[in-house]
Amino acid sequence: PNFMISSSMIAPDLVRVPISGDNRTKAGDAAPLLVLPPTFVVRGIGQNNPYPDAVNTIRVTLAANVMLGANMYGIAIVEEVDEELVVVRSNDTSCVNLTAVNTSCLDMTGFNITNMTNMSCMDMTFLNMSVSAVVSACSPVNVTNETAMALPTRYVLPEVSTITIMGLTGSVTASGYVAITDSSGLLDTNATWTKESGMLEVRFMNNTQWKTADAPIEISFELRNPGTCMPSPMVMVSGVVRGTGCNVSILAAAMHKDVSSVPFAECKACGASGSRCDACHADGCDQACDDADAAPLIVHGPAFIIKKIGQSTTWPGVANTMTVTFATNIPFTAESTFYLSGFAGAQHADGAIVLTDGSDAAASCINTTAVNVSCVNTTGVDMTNPDCVDLTGVDMSCMDATGRRLLAAPGARALLATVSGKAAVAQATWSNAEKKLTLKIGAGGTVEGRQYAFSFVLTNPRQAQRAPLIDISAEKAGTCKTPVPKCTMDRGADPKLHPLGVDAPTFIVREVTQSSPYTDAVNTITVTLGSNTAGARPSKVTVSGLMGSVTMENKAMQITAVGPAMFESTAVWSAASGSVVLTYLADTDSVAGTNYSFTFEL
């Protein structure tokens, strides 16, 4: 029997995700005839370097919900209006016989306007004359190989989809073309960059097509960071779709920044945790490299990311070797200068100061028999030159990650690491009044992120003092010649390694023995002394507490040196106090850490 089923609503599918992967669609998008506006459903962006003045690779991942591409599509008409050439577009594909077009004359905008006088480019036989309805648009002009070009002139114009990334402001890369790489192979390798607006326009190549089911397009390009600290700007992406049969605009939308990646493991600031050297960066820019530093064009302020200093001795009045290890997040050039200041109490003659290599590796790292000696000079060996070094003769544990030797040639005056024989430091000078070391960078320069170590010798004060804070700063760093703010250097956990922390003068060796315990015997007393500082006239040394001896007062008691002599051959003996007072030899200084022994009889 015939019967009717009453109409009822069909429940739309609000659960299934019609296109999976990359978050291109969501639950509910499977409802029938739900049409989404054209958009980039995947629009990620990140970077690989937050360092100031660095060449920074920007990474972009895009997928649209509409097809993209480019085709030779339509006619452009060149007309003369008020004595100027004007291009008028016609999208009538029936005018174009693509097989007859001389594609060598095409660029991304069609026939380059400078080629309009090239007769081989202006052969109009590709125009379809059989379409009577569009004769006005398709009729060829009188252009042949023998005649001059007349206006109006028609030529093939590709219909090209474009992607525009906006808001990458702050980069110092000049406007012009920027080379790009892309995973799809569909894009023109040159994109148009506008510095002022931070805009990059990317075009599809002729006869290409990207479909919504294809893998996302991954684009990368390089921009130079500014030399100053800045937060990541708001970045937008938009597009224009042409040449796919559906010419639409993709409205601008905010890009999704990479806030989960750490650009690289060594990325850090001031070499410390906690305060992150806030005193060095009053602008409040966070110098810590963390999981937000892959956001596009977030840039750290110029900083010493490693800034360690230590000393070799706490003894007063002696030569003290200061060892400095540093790395910056911005390169130093031949115009750069950096300063170490705050060496309170230290002494050194004004002027040039000798730097030596601060590495703790041994000279045995180089088998000199395997080194081409013509490559060795006072700045060391260029380990990156295969003609200079037979690496079979080199202890690879002595190499840094770049394969460059940080030590200078044994016995040479090391000037930090070198690049192709060019010293990283051209000049080092000391100001005794300011207690400051100034280092002028040499032609070799320094590389951001790389550690450098060097040492120099100062003389400790003769009196005890607490270790002062040492500051480090620089000026004219990088290509932008920016200052690196003053910052306090980091010291080790052991207070004895804190620079210019000086002990009070003392006898570190103080031994006394006798030759006989018998009553009424002549007893030879032997004293051994060693101090942590040099001794000299007019200073005197008193040995006291020798009570009970029956030896009478004597202002010229005989003193006999055991080993090197440091005191006069006579001393003053006081029976009442049981003390011997010794006088240093004229024009002779004792050596800190050296033991001196002498005897006398009681």
Write the layout of secondary structure elements.
Layout: E1 40-47, E2 55-64, E3 68-81, E4 84-90, E5 106-107, E6 110-111, H1 135-138, E7 153-160, E8 162-166, E9 176-182, E10 190-194, E11 199-203, E12 208-210, E13 217-224, E14 236-241, E15 248-254, E16 256-257, E17 304-311, E18 319-328, E19 337-341, E20 351-352, E21 356-357, E22 418-419, E23 422-423, E24 425-431, E25 436-441, E26 452-459, E27 471-477, E28 482-488, E29 507-514, E30 524-531, E31 540-543, E32 554-558, E33 560-562, E34 570-574, E35 579-583, E36 596-601
Parallel strand pairs: 1-16
Antiparallel strand pairs: 1-2, 2-13, 3-4, 3-7, 3-12, 5-6, 8-11, 8-14, 9-10, 9-13, 10-11, 14-15, 17-18, 18-26, 19-25, 19-27, 20-24, 21-26, 22-23, 24-25, 27-28, 29-30, 30-36, 31-35, 32-34, 33-36, 34-35
Explained architecture:
Strands 15-14-8-11-10-9-13-2-1-16 form a ten-stranded mixed beta sheet, with no helix packed on it. Strands 20-24-25-19-27-28 form a six-stranded antiparallel beta sheet, with no helix packed on it. Strands 3, 4, 7 and 12 form a four-stranded antiparallel beta sheet that branches. It is elongated, with a radius of gyration of 40 Å. With 602 residues, the protein is an all-beta fold. The model is unreliable at 73-78, 85-156, 269-288, 359-384 and 389-422 (pLDDT under 50). A hairpin with a 4-residue loop joins strand 24 and strand 25. The longest helix has 4 residues, at 135-138. The chain is built from one helix and 36 strands.
